[in-house]
C-alpha cells in the first residue's frame, strides 16, 4: 500500500524530505469507495428500559446494507454529532467517516507524510474503504471528537503520576477529573506517597496512600453520576514493597463485606442504589506491582522487606508467601487486586532513560511513561479469513501499514487534557494497534482456543502485526523523523526490537495457516531491524491488545480483543425493532471447515440453539467439542487456557493485554495463586482474575448462643436432658372463593397464562400456570410444578424463598417478553417469580433480592429514596385503620395497587456472569470485555473503548 520514496513534500515546506508513495489495495482509480457500496436507509429508535418511552429517535440514517442493525444503532447513538432533529445532525456513515478521515488526510499533507497530492488522495480512499467495510476501527474518542468544534482528543488511555506532596496529590485529583469528564480513563502508581507507618517532617504520622484513595474514589464517583452514564475508569497501583501494601490488598475485600452486610440489613446496595455511595474504593481497579525479587521470595518461602518511601530502608519484614496468599485471597473474594509484573514490564521498555514504567491505564494494556497517553485502533481479524480457510497475509500487512500511518498522523493534530501529557505524548508518540475477533477466527478455522494450533496462530498474527507496525514506524522516521526521545533511548529501543525478533524466531508453528503468517512475520522483523538501524523509529510504542468494547460492536465482531467466544448463542437485533436468539454465525462456518455435511450442520445448529452447547449434539464428534469451548457455559475454557493464550501473544506486543482470567465459582485461593504464579513464569506483564459470583451472596456464619466464645472454660454441670417437641407444619387450605389475578405473558415467543390466588386476609396461596395444550408433556409438567408450589405456599413456605431460588434461572424459552416493565427474562420461571415478587412481596424483601418496580428504579435515578413511596402508603393505611369505621372481620385495609413491575432487564444470553452490571442506559445486562463491561444493546461501556 505504501512505500518510501525520495522527493520534495508538497506541504509544510519540507523540501528534500522523503514522502510516502501510497498504492491502492482495496480501491479503484476514478471510483470513490462509497460508490462501490450499497447504501440503505434505516430508522434508529431506542426505548427507555424503565417505562418503555422513546429516549432516542433518528429516522432515515444511512449505512451500508452489510452493517447489522446493532452496529448501525450504536454508531448513530454514540458517534453521530449534532443535536438530534437539527440540520447539523449527522445522518449518514459517510458524513462521520468524511469528518474523521478528512482531518487525518489534511494533517498528513500539512506535515509532509505524502510524496504527492495523489498519494494523499489514495490514502484518503483506502482509509475510508477500510472503515466502511469494518476492517478496523479507531478508538471511541476519535469518533467523538475529531473534526468537531470540541478539542481533538484521540486518546483513550492515560497514565498520571503523583509525588509525596499535598500539591501533587491535589493535582492528581484535578487531572483525573478532567480525564473522566472527557469519557476516558487513567491509571496511577501511588508508591511514592509515604506510608501510614512513616513520619512527616512536622513530626506527625503520614496518612498513607490508601487514605488519599478515598478522595480520588469519591471524585470519580461524583463525576460518573454527574456526567453521562459510563463508569469513571481508573487504575490504582501500589508496589509490593510499600509498607501499606497489606491495607491496600484488603481494602476492596473489606468493602465487599460491607456491601453484603448492608444489603442483608435492607439497605439499597444495588447498582445505582442510594446507599451504594457509602461503599468506598469501588470506582477503581486495584493492582499490586510485584518484582522478581518478591516472586523469588514466594517461590523459596523467604522473608520480604517493606521499604520506607524516602530512605529506602526496610522498616518491616513479612513472609512473602503469606503476603502472596493474602493477595490471592482478596482476589478470590472480590476480584481485586490484579497483579502487574514490574521487572518483566521494564525489561521490554523502549525508553528506560526517560523513566521507569510504574503504572498502566485502567484495563492494564497500556504500560509506558508517567504523564502520557495512547490512542488505539483495532483490526477485525475475521475480515482476512477467506472462504477457503486461508488468511490473507498481504492484505493484513497493507492494512496495518495504513493504520499505523493514520495513528501517527493523529498525534500531530491531537489535543490533550494536560500540558504534561501533551509534552510526553508528542515526544514519544505512543500508539496502540491491536485486534478483535481472534476467538471467532480460531473457531471458524476449526482451532480450539486452548490448543497449540490456536496459540500458534494467535502468536504468529500478533508478531506479524507488531513487526509491520515497527517497520512502518521506522519508515515514518525516515520521512518525518524519529520521536523526540529516541536519541537518548536508541540503544534500549533497538535492544527491545531485537527481543521481539528473537521471540518471533522462537515461535513454533504446527504446520497449518500459522506457517505462512509466521514466514511473513519473520521477513517483516528483518526489514524492521534493518530500517530501524538506519532511520530510528517514529514511535516508542506500537501495539497492545485492548478490550474493544464499543468499537468491537461497531465492527460487528463476535468476540472482543483476545477473548474467546463468550457463548455459542446470542441475541440478534431485527430491523424494525425486537430481537431473536441465534447461533453465532462462526459456528456453521467452523462445522463446514471441520468437514461436516450440510444436513449435519443444520442438525447441530438446531441442537445448539436449543441447549446452548455442543455436548451430545447429533453427529458431532467428541474430539471436535473443544473447538466450540467458550469463556463460560457447559464447556468453559480452563483458567490456564486463558493464561497460556496471553503468554502466546505477549512477547510480540509493545504493551500488555487487557484480559480477565475467568475462574469458576468453585475455584480456590490456591487456584488463583497458581494463576498469578504461572503468569509471572510465562512472561506476562499484567493479569486480572474473576471468580464467578465472587461479588454475590454471602457465606453464612453461626454464632454461639449467649455470646459464648470457642474454647471458653465453664464449670462442670450435670447433663440435662431436654425434650424438644417438634412442631409439624399444617396446611392452610384456600377457601372456595378467593381473590385472584390472571396474567397473560410471552417469554421468548412462548405464550402462557398465570393465575395467582390469595387468601382473603392477604397472602399468596396458589399459583397455576398454563403454557401448552392440555395433555401435552409441557402442560403436565407445568401443572405438576404449579401444584408443588401451591402446596408449599399453603404449608407456610415463604414466597421470598421461592423467589430467591427461581429468579435468574436460565433456560429456553428466554428473551424478550410482551410485558412493558419486565422487558427481558432469563426463563419462564425467572419471569413468573419476578412478577409474583412485585405483586406480593413488600418493598424491603424485594430490595434485598434486587427486584424493583419501574417507579422505584426511576426514583433511584433521580436520587430519591424508593422506600419513601411505600412509607407514604403505610402512613395512609395506618390513618385509615385508626379511623372509626366499621370493617368486616376478615377484611384488612386494601393493599395499594401493584406498582409497575420490575425493570431490571436481564440478558437471556447464555454464559453471562450473574453479577455483571446492568447498563445504565438501556437496562440490558452487560458482558465482559477485557477488564471492563460492554452493553450489546446500546454500546455503552464501563470504561473500555
UniProtKB/TrEMBL annotation:
It holds the Pfam family Ribonuc_red_2_N. It is an enzyme of class 1 (oxidoreductase). Residues 155-690 form the Ribonucleotide reductase large subunit C-terminal domain. Residues 887-910 are annotated as: Disordered. One of its GO terms (molecular function) is cobalt ion binding. Its EC number is 1.17.4.1. Its cofactor is adenosylcob(III)alamin. InterPro entries: RdRp_reductase_class-2, RNR_2_N, RNR_lg_C, RNR_NrdJ/NrdZ, TSCPD_dom. Transmembrane segments: none annotated. It catalyses: a 2'-deoxyribonucleoside 5'-diphosphate + [thioredoxin]-disulfide + H2O = a ribonucleoside 5'-diphosphate + [thioredoxin]-dithiol. Residues 44-134 form the Ribonucleotide reductase class II vitamin B12-dependent N-terminal domain. It comes from the Bacteria. GO terms for biological process: DNA biosynthetic process. Keywords: Cobalamin, Cobalt, Disulfide bond, DNA synthesis, Nucleotide-binding, Oxidoreductase. Residues 735-838 form the TSCPD domain. Catalyzes the reduction of ribonucleotides to deoxyribonucleotides. May function to provide a pool of deoxyribonucleotide precursors for DNA repair during oxygen limitation and/or for immediate growth after restoration of oxygen. PANTHER family: RIBONUCLEOSIDE-DIPHOSPHATE REDUCTASE, VITAMIN B12-DEPENDENT RIBONUCLEOTIDE REDUCTASE. Belongs to the ribonucleoside diphosphate reductase class-2 family. This is Vitamin B12-dependent ribonucleotide reductase. It comes from Spongiactinospora gelatinilytica.
